[in-house]
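Deliverable D5.2: sample structural annotation.
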Amino acid sequence: MDGHHDTSFDLLVDIQSYTDNELKALADSLRVEEHEISKKRRIIHAKLDILRAEMVRRLRDKHGSGQSLFGEGDVERLSAILSSRGLPAEEQE
């Protein structure tokens, strides 16, 4: 799209001035971007599902061995993980 901005919504500001080919190219580009984002989202959701399943498995193992289900800080860590904040930096290593 010669001469047109291609960042954020800037590319839509003067959309009426685009040629038919430029509009088609923009639509194609956005479809590809949407597909890539959707794929990444699905992968992230799968990773979260695996993480949650492992956490449940570990809790079951603790319960089966007679250990306390929750140790110090477990609830806070679980809340952080499930709220998309993730683990604190010192626990990610």
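Annotation notes: The mean pLDDT is 81. The two ends are 44 Å apart (CA to CA).
The annotation will be released with the project's public dataset once the embargo ends.
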